[in-house]
Fold this sequence. Notes:
alpha/beta; DHBP synthase; eleven-stranded mixed β-sheet; three-stranded parallel β-sheet; 10 helices; 14 strands; globular; binds adenosine monophosphate; binds magnesium ion
Amino acid sequence: MNMSSRITQNVNQACLVLQQGGIVGIPTETVYGLAAVALNAEAVSRVYQAKGRPPSHPLIIHLSPSDNINRWGVLNESAQALANALWPGPLTLLVPRTRLVPDWVTGARDTVALRIPAHDLTIALLDAVSDALVAPSANRFGHVSPTSAEHVINDLGDSVDLVLDGGSCAIGIESTIVECTSSTLQILRPGKVSALDVAEITGLSISDMDGPSRAPGMLIAHYAPNARVELCASIGEAKARHDTYVIKGVATEILHYEDDTIYALSLYDDLRSADLRGSSVVLAVLPPDTGLGIAIRDRLSKAAASN
Ligand code: AMP
Ligand code: MG
């Protein structure tokens, strides 16, 4: 099948593929996911294979707003408050699992990661399938996440059965993961929902990420293009380094946006484009360490750690 025949806007076609045990790229407001029916062990194992993802890295379950969350996880008061305030939205809750959740989704952990994504096409798909979907980011393991249907095909090629095209992702970086398994909350992955948002909604102070992350798969190196990513503290530093590289004949580009919303939106597409242009080095200017800037810095640091 050629690339265009595997991209569709037809929810019923995507639904049929999933119900038959296929794997489908799905749009969300964060990044594109690679979906399979969560209760279908074989389909979920195809997701791991297509990504080249180690089986020890558990998957986020995506639910429709019309599903009953309590079938999947046990939400304490804080988790419930966050779900009420922010779902559908870019927030994943890590909570104790119910018996319905299979080991092949959680890597046999006693917790499950749950999210209701804010994307009309994907909510329509979840309702049509009438089953929960696992959906890790639809990229090869360790590579840059996809923010368009074309990115998914470019990364996964023939191993994905279909991609549901919902346009470019509105946010552009992965969901915030909040661990809600005890009376203290922890941010396991920063995203658009900030620690401040979480603290305001729950009335709890949020512990900083400390020590090795309790979320397997939060590796030091991740989100990496082929080009080497170098972090710069300011645009001035980036320009100076750029000049030095140009003199040496090294194909180099600067990645920088003043506005963090636009930075997040553009980040992964720009890293992919740098590879397509054959650049050897991307000089990424770090945004301020607040709000969405925290999440962008996290992704850039991991991309740079892959060098
Ligand atoms: P992604 O590939 O962006 O979907 O990342 C999903 C991440 O969520 C994983 O790498 C884990 O860090 C985290 N996660 C998902 N399920 C669990 C779980 N049951 N326990 C701990 N972390 C989880
Ligand atoms: Mg990922």
